[in-house]
Amino acid sequence: MNVGDIAYPISKGLLKEGDIYSDIGTIVAGKKPGRESPEEITIFKSVGTAVMDVSTALRAYKLAQKRRVGKSVNLWGV
Q: Are 49 and 55 in contact (CB under 8 A)?
């Protein structure tokens, strides 16, 4: 069952259940790989609590460091 923002395009026939590859938890847990090419599209909307957002971000950051992918950016302007 899909709720929230994804429910509308599914209800209008713009997306099918089979069009959805995975959820963020499955990817972060390493059970499925994330994007494997620049042509793939990733959509993630966080609707959890702040602690869930921070823990997910930390896990993604650590995985990126371990895999030596991504780009560091200065968000604080210092």
A: no
Rounded distance between C-alpha atoms, residue 7 and residue 35, angstroms: 23
List the chain domain ranges. Answer: 22-69
- Give the separation between CA 54 and CA 42, rounded to whole angstroms: 19
> pTM for the whole thing?
0.47
4 near 47, Cβ under 8 Å?
yes
Residue 58 three-state SS? helix
Write down how long the chain is. 78
Residue 64 CB coordination number (10 Å): 13
How does pLDDT run across 17-31, given as a tens digit for each residue? 888 888 888 888 899
